[in-house]
Amino acid sequence: MVRLVLVLLVAGCGGGSGGSGGIGDDDGGGWDDTRGQRLADAYCDRMLDCCTPAEMNAENSVFQLDGGGCRLLFETVYDGAFFPMLEDGEAAGTVEVDWAAFDQCIELISHATCEEIAAGEAFAPCENVIQGQIADGSQCNQGFECRSGYCANVAGDNATCGQRPGGGDACNGTCAQGYYCDTTCLPQKPNGQACSDSDECADGGCVGGVCAVICDGGGPGAGPADGTLAGVGPRLVDAACGARMECCTDAELAESSGDFGVGDDEDSCRLWTSLFAGVLLAYAHQAAEDGNAVIHEDVLDQCLDDYASMSCEEYARYDSPSACDDWIEGRLADGEPCAIGFECSGGACEGGGLGDPGVCSAIPAGGEACTGTCADGFFCNGSGLCQTQVAAGETCSGDDECAEGDCAETTCTLICDGR
Question: 258 Cβ partners below 8 Å, 6+ apart?
């Protein structure tokens, strides 16, 4: 079975029982900042050659991706999160990586046949390039740190290495090989049986509600990379998580953990920020490809530079650089169908997102009706009207009411200002 999660971690969460494994023995010279892009290229080229659009959607479970969008998403996750996390793990002694084998793994994926992709054989040589060093029962942050390949309760306070739950065991998204999680671990289904997700299928994936062999040929091809947005994702992740870790105290990190899935450590910040940024950039790429938006490359570059150099006080006040408001220009008029607000000249795509179609509209401002989003300086109140936000030190009942900082108990308060 071809699953996105296998490629995301290149079997790093399914490592064996120790030692250097896989397809190479020397260290390959250590860190190489081109690996993320090369791995994204290899994965997206092969998947889009071998998978039909419906099959690709069954694999990524997000939305339809062309080659440019696919590369942007995975480059952002790999270079923004996965490889920095591996580098940190090596430095801490929690993982060992055979980088020479990793490079060979990327090369093998890039030349895999569609038959190998469909059979799940394309990624087999990559299974042991990452070896976790933490024993069962000891504390962990990520599965690839564990000798077993599994970190139980990874999002909680007491995450420990252990064995994946097996048949009949309670689960929270992950089960041992041959099972899928539906509150408890259930046996995966053979091809031809009904399904609602590819995790349920022992071979292939879930397409049209049925487990079937997928990605054995007939894909549209990857097409060209997006030269304008390439490399943007990792820069954004570095800036966002760098500011968070520099400007927030331990107590503030703990208080804000859980927002959008972000925890109180740099690894979780990188992981969730890279996923969010990757999807965002894939949407921006598609909007530009469809002629629904124009990306101003010089303005975007200035935005990233300015964002990376923000002071902690600016970070705490959400004073985003002005260039970050103008890097993409929507071309669709109010009332036209849209996928995301990027495409709309008025700034809002009512009802759109993650593949759901919407309609372009102007962002409502003071006193106008709203359903959740208002123009800068306003929030959508309980009566469904845009109301002026309040300054730090004033009374609030939710974060969106604050023009600066967050709502701490009942007061707008600057947090993560470096103090």
Answer: none
Digit-coded pLDDT (tens) for 203-256: 888 988 999 999 999 999 988 889 999 999 999 999 999 999 999 998 888 877
In a domain, 222, yes or no: no
One-letter amino acid for residue 145 of the chain: E
What type of residue is 193? Q
Q: Find all residues with CB under 8 Å of 106, minimum gap 6, and list them.
A: 35, 38, 39, 42
Among the candidates 162, 178, 212, a domain finishes at 212
Cβ pair 163, 136 in contact under 8 A: yes
Gap between the Cα atoms of 76 and 106, Å rounded = 17
Helix H or strand E segment including 212: strand 210-212
Choosing from 212, 246, 262, the residue where a domain stops is 212
CB 348 within 8 A of CB 373: yes
Q: Which residues of 235-258 are buried (b: 16+ CB within 10 A; e: fewer)?
A: bbbbbbbebbeebbeeebbebbbe
Domain enclosing residue 393, as ranges? 368-419
* Structural domain count, the chain: 2
Query: Within a domain: residue 111?
Result: yes
Which tens digit of pLDDT belongs to each residue from 263-272? 678 888 999 9
